[in-house]
Write a structure and sequence with these properties.
Number of domains: 1
Strand order of the largest sheet: 1-7-6-5-4-3-2
Mean pLDDT: 83
Order of helices and strands: HEHHEEEEEEH
Shape: globular
Distance between the termini: 29 Å
Radius of gyration: 16 Å
Number of strands: 7
CATH topology: Alpha-D-Glucose-1,6-Bisphosphate, Chain A, domain 4
Largest sheet: 7 strands, antiparallel
Length: 172
């Protein structure tokens, strides 16, 4: 469970950003969740590791983030290559497993949002909490409130579903 300070920080979005909070079921053991979120099995859901300088403890991966716009057959899904950076796993005993995560578009970056937040697994639930900066400054924030937040939540949900599938051992 998030501390009072964490909840307050998440509730107050920095200027020019929007809050993103999404969760999906991930009914696996703590040990399995830790393995998939850890360095050894990240490739199952993150893809290609990209060499980069000045990342400290973080890793950068090139990933196709997805947005499904139709659930009916044929499914229509948009994909956008993104650099996803993940930090080390934090897993104090008896507390949620957390990983810092951020992403930005690999090309045409000014046209796509930038995200920074935390992946968290606890008690069979996988969540993503953080902030993203919609493209276009003030106009982008207004567009986000009207429509674009649906795309942000959809993209985040599909990423979480991909991670949960890896945790269950399903083909991705």
């Amino acid at each position: 469970m998030a501390s009072r300070a964490e909840r307050r920080a998440l509730a107050e979005a920095p200027r020019g950003t929007a809050r993103l909070s999404v969760s999906v079921a991930a009914k696996v053991s703590r040990r399995r969740a830790l393995a998939v979120l850890g360095v050894e099995e990240r490739g199952a859901w993150l893809g290609e590791l990209v060499e980069a300088e000045d990342l400290g403890e973080r890793e950068r991966h090139l990933v196709d983030l997805e947005l499904r716009v139709s659930e009916q057959t044929p499914r229509i899904t948009f994909r956008k290559a993104a650099y996803v950076e993940v930090g080390p796993v934090r897993a104090p005993q008896q507390q949620p497993i957390t990983v810092g995560i951020s992403w930005r578009a690999a090309g045409l970056a000014p046209l796509f949002p930038v995200f920074s937040g935390t992946l968290r697994w606890a008690d069979g639930e996988l969540s993503l909490d953080g902030y993203y900066a919609p493209p276009g400054g003030g106009i982008g924030i207004i567009a986000d409130r009207l429509l674009l937040n649906v795309a942000a939540r959809g993209t985040a949900r599909l990423l979480l579903e991909r991670i949960a599938a890896a945790m269950r051992g399903d083909a991705i």
